[in-house]
Amino acid sequence: MILTLSQLAVIAATPLLVSAVPSVEVRQAQKVTVDFTKKYQTIDGFGFSGAFQRANLVVNLKEPKQTELLNLLFNTTSGAGFSIVRNGIGSSQDSSKDYMNTILPKCPATPDGTPDYKWDGKDSGQLWLSQQAVKYGVKTFYGNAWSAPGCMKSNNNDANGGMLCGISGASCTKGDWKQAYANYLIKWAQLYGENGVKITHLGFLNEPDYTTSYASMQSNGNQAAEFIKVLRPSLDKANMTDVGINCCEATGWSVASQHASQIASSGAENMVYAITSHEYTSRISGTMRTTRRVWQTEYSDLNGGWSTAWYSNGGSGDGFTWANTVFNGVVNSNLSAYVFWEGVQDRATNNNNNEKLILVDGQNYVVSKRLWAFAQFRVVRPGALRIGASGGSNLKSSAFVNVDGSVAVVIINSGTGTQSVSIALSGSTLTSPTVKAWYTDNTHDMTAVDVTVAADGTATASVTGRGMISFLFTPGAATVPPV
Ligand SMILES: *[C@@H]1O[C@H](CO)[C@@H](O)[C@H](O)[C@H]1NC(C)=O
Ligand SMILES: *[C@@H]1O[C@H](CO)[C@@H](O)[C@H](O)[C@H]1NC(C)=O
Ligand SMILES: *[C@@H]1O[C@H](CO)[C@@H](O)[C@H](O)[C@H]1NC(C)=O
Asked: What range does the record give for the signal peptide (predicted)?
């Protein structure tokens, strides 16, 4: 196309007009007020799993890609800064397909017989991945069995449902295996401990409302309570008083809520650390009736074809969609932890869907924006207390006080235009804080952005439309007290 002189003149003039628009928007900053008098739940962290041998994809990567990938997952300044690793406690005879091999391939003849544990020092790649996580400062390791070994179950198989023998409702003629299963879980945790990884939480069920061809074991909340009453004193006797029991990994929020009420009515609520739910069969909404902490421990987009988009019209694999999902769980449903399903997966599995954060394709990897949605939450460290945050239109705001006294503010801009955001810390004891901010959108991944701090301490930075911004206020140098 050949342009006339007058057309060229229009083009030359255009940038001036366009550039005037954002600066007008930036002047009208939207104010978000952080309220320290409103105190909500304590945050345990954010994480992912390397179960089903996916951890091996990282083990098998060559340098420098291996370290790059570990940084993407665990680094608190350049990656997602994940703080929880959920490991599958294997129950299968081998590690083919999606199986995870057990440390007890053969049970003793009777429940009180001496178990012949076999430790392969790998645990489907999960031990190595956990050891790397320790180096990055990760302290929360959740060991989660999908099932007891088949030899302890009503159906003699770790797959296809069935129940733990000894639980009411299980039809078994081989005795009560509750204590043997508790000992087995404790042994697994001790093996990790001996290898430098302290297991902090244990779960003994996965999706007990779903029977499938890989490891699965049925249970309702009342039946789970029967086992919890054996596991808790067994952990205490093994000097593992600080290991929390999580239960029961329901396929969705409504079943998890049933589990919570059944565990409470069975008198085992105070023996549980967290009620755990997935989000597949029913999404998280409202708050669960429990005195325990609540964790979302497994969810992903199982249907969408591999997508690395931040925003593509609200697609189920979009980073922006996941930012909202995690935000909703933490802010509207009182979650103390949000754990994604697989951290990494290959191209071949499940037609290269979105159930992973990072695609590991042979010796290469591709990062999805879902990872960066989680990275925006990395300013919220384990032990943080959620506090009040409100204000601004089209802004979803959340605020947290970290254990070190720093204040994290995580905001989603639901609007389509660039927005300047001002954060006022009302009632803060932070003196002359240093403020940093990072944002993610279609073309940025937790990229540092300039912050202006006013004399009254209000911090202002800009975030693009459908972007996400995280602020971190760290205490300034201590003022010298008057003599
Ligand atoms: C995290 O990333 C930063 C920036 O690349 C790097 O300097 C630091 O060494 C990394 N931390 C760890 C524990 O590897
Ligand atoms: C637990 O700790 C106590 C005190 O340190 C010790 O005497 C006991 O042997 C330990 N028990 C186990 C099972 O490790
Ligand atoms: C939120 O969870 C905590 C436990 O972490 C619980 O004490 C509190 O009652 C819950 N709040 C609501 C509104 O459910």
From this structure: 1-20
Residues 392 and 32: their CA atoms lie apart, in Å, by 6
pTM of the model as a whole:
0.93
What's the pLDDT tens digit per position in 399-409?
Answer: 999 999 999 99
For residue 194, report the phi and psi dihedrals to the nearest 5 degrees. Answer: -65, -20
164 CA from centroid of ligand 1 (Å): 45
pLDDT at 97: 86
For residue 70, what are the domain limits? 45-375
Q: How far apart are CA 335 and CA 300, in angstroms?
A: 17
Q: Measured between alpha carbons, how far is 117 from 39 in angstroms, rounded to an integer? A: 46
Q: Please, is 83 exposed, middle or buried when counting C-beta atoms within 10 Å of its C-beta (0-12, 13-18, 19+)?
A: buried
Is residue 131 located within the same domain as residue 231? Answer: yes
Task: Work out how many domains the chain is built from and give that number.
Answer: 2
**Quick one: which ligand is closest to 238's CA?**
2
- Residue 301 in this model has a pLDDT that exceeds 80: yes
Q: How confident is the model at residue 477 (pLDDT cuts 50, 70, 90)?
A: low
In a domain, 14, yes or no: no
pLDDT of residue 27: 52
Domain shared by 31 and 58, yes or no: no
| Cis check: omega of the bond before 247, within 30 degrees of 0 | no
Residue 7 within any structural domain of the chain: no
* CB neighbour burial string for 376-393, b if at least 16 within 10 angstroms, e if fewer: bbbbbbbbbebbbbebbe
> Which stretch of DSSP H or E encloses residue 321?
helix 319-327
pLDDT band at residue 431 using 50, 70 and 90 as cut-offs:
confident
243-281 pLDDT per residue, tens: 999 999 999 999 999 999 999 999 999 999 999 999 999
**CA 393 to CA 117: how far, in whole Å?**
58
Q: Whose CA is nearest to atom 13 of ligand 3?
A: 287
Question: Is residue 482 in a domain?
Answer: no
Question: Is residue 78 in contact with ligand 1, taking CB distance under 6 Å?
Answer: yes
Q: What is the pLDDT of residue 447?
A: 98
